[in-house]
Amino acid sequence: MAGIIQDKMNPAQKQAPKFDHGAELQKMRSNMPPKMRNAFDRVVLAGQRIMYGKETKQVVEQFLSHDMPVANKLGEGVANLVVMIDNKANGAIPKDVLIPAGTVLLFDAADFLKQTGETISAQDIGKAYELMFYGIFEAYGGKPEQVDAVFDKMGQEHASKAGA
């Protein structure tokens, strides 16, 4: 059953353009201050090496085989991965790159799971992102209400941009 907004849209508006996450992630990287890009790239590369490396393949496959919703596999898995990378770097990674790098790794992991035949919906990605966000903040002592405030602010900013 279509919602009120969908009922009012013309057919051309109902067909959303295909999301090009590669282009969006490149745009995100280009909007970073130059001094953060190197750290961002290093975290993404380290995460990809862990996710796809021969020596860690078995651990990753074991985690992905757990009986849990795909959103949890993605969100919790990527949050743990990003925190583990920072721990291996003795906390030296600028914390401002953890969420953006985690976002890249989340989409990489989702693409990998899709290639293995896993069905992943937009809602799964949204929930996974939320779980990743909460997981990273929690690892550094962030409280759920602080994360809620961040999401509320993001929602307000998005709403004000959409209204403009």
Number of strands: 0
How many separate domains make up the residues? 1
**Which secondary-structure class do the elements indicate?**
mainly alpha
Distance between the termini: 29 Å
Unreliable stretches (pLDDT < 50, length at least 5) are: 12-17
Can you summarize the main beta sheet? none
Average pLDDT number: 83
Q: What is the share of helical residues? A: over 70%
Helical run tally: 9
Silhouette:
globular
Order of helices and strands: HHHHHHHHH
Radius of gyration: 17 Å
Quote the beta fraction: under 5%
Helix and strand arrangement:
Elements lengths: L3 H5 L2 H4 L6 H10 L3 H19 L4 H8 L5 H19 L9 H18 L6 H18 L4 H20 L1
Helix pairs in contact: 3-7, 4-6, 4-7, 6-7, 6-8, 7-8
Question: If you had to describe this structure to a student in words, what would you say it looks like?
Answer:
This protein has 164 residues and is mainly α. It has one domain (21-163). It is built from 9 helices and no strands. The protein has helices spanning 4-8, 11-14, 21-30, 34-52, 57-64, 70-88, 98-115, 122-139, 144-163. The radius of gyration is 17 Å and the shape is globular. Residues 12-17 have low confidence and may be disordered.
Keywords:
mainly alpha, 164 residues, single chain, globular, 74% helix
In short:
The protein is mostly helical and 164 residues long. Helices cover 74% and strands 0% of the residues.
